[in-house]
């Protein structure tokens, strides 16, 4: 009865609004720095493998802390969690903007990440608690603005800023928003989510750090170091062992760090499988398209960033609309239509050439983004709807962790596919006459570099073809989606078959 009562109260729109702002700047910051990495390399005189840690390290901290978010959300109030997280994020942002050395900048990024890691799980949990099942689609559609639009806007904004200002301006722009969110939260944010005085299992935290941290680091480093590097396969093996041990331990604990029993709810398990499959394929687009534009083609960082802007705008418009469509029609039809569009657009990217018009690439990227807007939030919300309220923190933590890990794995795998295909094509071209029709004699780029670009284009196309095949798997899974019944209390709709007898006894 407590679950029904909580959801019949007026939703705390003020709380959700400030959480939205905090989460938006935190997630925006995740991709904000990518375009600025060359400038940072030049200023601090560091190598690509070193500067990459500004992105990899940020993702690593997120991967380690997100699994613990279920504990924090249950143990502490939403007010105390948000203020602590936003304080860390603000301190990290300030430190990054004034950092005199690369080491301090990297430390600042880690501090930022420790604050941002909790933002998405906290926001998602508050929305699940605040809104009844029949209204969640619309509000989760707005949640899609944060989850998808913020990372998409990052490269666009940073490309324009870095071309005209110092990379430090990226942090100076974010800082006022984070300070505003923090000050507003201190004076106006109220407690909404229930507390449960659970104990923290230290060994689970250690195993989670080894498991998810090892996987994230290993797969993220594979693109630079290669799969044969002991550091890569060693950390992946350690991550797998840590993850298996973590899962086995959770089943023995009365108060698990992560409740893996949420996978016994069929729609949640199915939505997680679809989301993981999509993340494996789609995150690569954020990497491969900029490589194509800035390396294979002679476009500037600003032009590469602006190409993604229409897609971000479309996502912003469509996320609330797809939420309303989900409330009315469920996730199955939306997922099937959306994935079909994404697969067609991804297949187009496997046919890129040295002369593909810029506007055509922008159009297809926008169409691909439109398809994504019909899939992500409806599928995730449908799965979370089947969980009982007590498992919301675990469901959101599992979803966000899987998104981070599968995105890192997918990006690493597809970049590796691109590199291997590129090497194979270079070997082929070395043993056959050069097709001079592909060489531009008027280009300022020398012939060997043009040949390398042709091989890289072949690798990019092949990677997108692999992405399309992976997405077909997600499309097949989407046909098995069933809508969670609307109009019943969550406690009734979210009962797993093996728990029915327990409820009847009570």
Query: Which sheet architecture does the biggest sheet show?
Result: none
What is the number of helical segments per DSSP (H or I, 4+ residues)?
23
* Strands, count: 0
CATH superfamily grouping of the largest domain: MFS general substrate transporter like domains
The average pLDDT score comes to 79
Low-confidence stretches: 1-8, 487-506
| Oligomeric form | single chain
Membrane topology: Multi-pass membrane protein
Family: Belongs to the major facilitator superfamily. EmrB family.
Keywords: Cell membrane, Membrane, Transmembrane, Transmembrane helix, Transport
Main location: membrane
What does it look like?
It contains 23 helices and no strands. With 506 residues, the protein is mainly α. The chain folds into three domains: 11-195, Up-down Bundle (Growth Hormone, Chain: A); 201-256; 262-483, Growth Hormone, Chain: A (Up-down Bundle). Helix 7 (78-98) packs antiparallel against helix 8, helix 14 packs antiparallel against helix 19 (376-384) and helix 14 runs parallel beside helix 20. The radius of gyration is 23 Å and the shape is globular.
């Amino acid at each position: 009865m407590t679950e029904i009562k909580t959801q019949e109260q007026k939703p705390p729109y003020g709380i959700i609004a400030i959480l939205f702002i905090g989460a938006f700047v935190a997630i925006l910051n995740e991709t904000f720095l990518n375009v600025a990495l060359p400038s940072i390399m030049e200023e601090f005189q560091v190598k690509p493998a070193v500067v990459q840690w500004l992105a990899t390290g940020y993702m690593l901290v997120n991967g380690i802390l997100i699994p613990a978010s279920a504990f924090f959300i249950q143990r502490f109030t939403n007010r105390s969690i948000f203020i602590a997280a936003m304080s860390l994020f603000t301190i990290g942002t300030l430190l990054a903007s004034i950092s005199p050395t690369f080491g301090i900048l990297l430390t600042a990024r880690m501090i930022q990440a420790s604050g941002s890691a909790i933002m998405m799980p906290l926001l998602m949990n508050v929305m699940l608690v605040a809104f009844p099942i029949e209204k969640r689609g619309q509000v989760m559609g707005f949640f899609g603005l944060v989850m998808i639009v913020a990372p998409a806007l990052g490269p666009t904004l940073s490309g324009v800023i870095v071309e005209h200002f110092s990379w430090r301006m990226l942090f100076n722009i974010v800082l006022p928003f984070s300070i505003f969110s923090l000050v507003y939260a201190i004076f106006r944010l109220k407690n909404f989510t229930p507390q449960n005085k659970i104990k923290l299992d230290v060994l689970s935290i250690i195993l989670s750090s080894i498991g998810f941290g090892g996987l994230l680091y290993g797969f993220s480093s594979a693109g630079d170091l290669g799969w044969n590097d002991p550091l890569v396969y060693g950390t992946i093996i350690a991550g797998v062992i840590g993850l298996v041990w973590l899962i086995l331990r959770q089943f023995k604990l009365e108060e698990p760090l992560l409740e893996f029993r949420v996978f016994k709810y069929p729609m949640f398990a199915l939505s997680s499988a679809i989301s993981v499959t999509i993340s494996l394929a789609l995150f690569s687009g954020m990497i491969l398209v900029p490589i194509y534009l800035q390396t294979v083609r002679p476009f500037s960082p600003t032009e590469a960033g602006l190409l993604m802007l229409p897609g971000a705008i479309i996502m912003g418009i469509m996320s609330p609309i797809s939420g309303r469509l989900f409330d009315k029609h469920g996730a199955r039809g939306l997922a099937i239509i959306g994935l079909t569009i994404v697969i067609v657009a991804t297949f187009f990217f496997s046919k890129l050439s040295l002369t593909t018009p810029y506007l055509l690439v922008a159009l297809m990227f926008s169409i691909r983004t439109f398809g994504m807007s019909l899939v992500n939030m409806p599928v995730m919300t449908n799965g979370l709807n089947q969980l009982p309220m007590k498992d919301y923190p675990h469901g959101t933590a599992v979803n966000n962790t899987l998104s981070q890990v599968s995105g890192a794995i997918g990006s690493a795998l597809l970049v590796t596919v691109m590199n291997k295909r590129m090497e194979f094509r270079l070997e082929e071209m070395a043993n056959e006459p050069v097709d001079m029709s592909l060489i531009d004699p008027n280009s300022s780029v020398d012939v060997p570099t043009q040949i390398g670009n042709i091989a890289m284009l072949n690798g990019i196309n092949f990677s997108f073809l692999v992405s399309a095949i992976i997405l077909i798997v997600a499309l097949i899974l989407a046909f098995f989606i069933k809508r969670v019944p609307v109009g019943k209390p969550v406690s009734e709709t979210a009962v797993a078959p093996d728990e029915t007898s327990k409820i009847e006894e009570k």
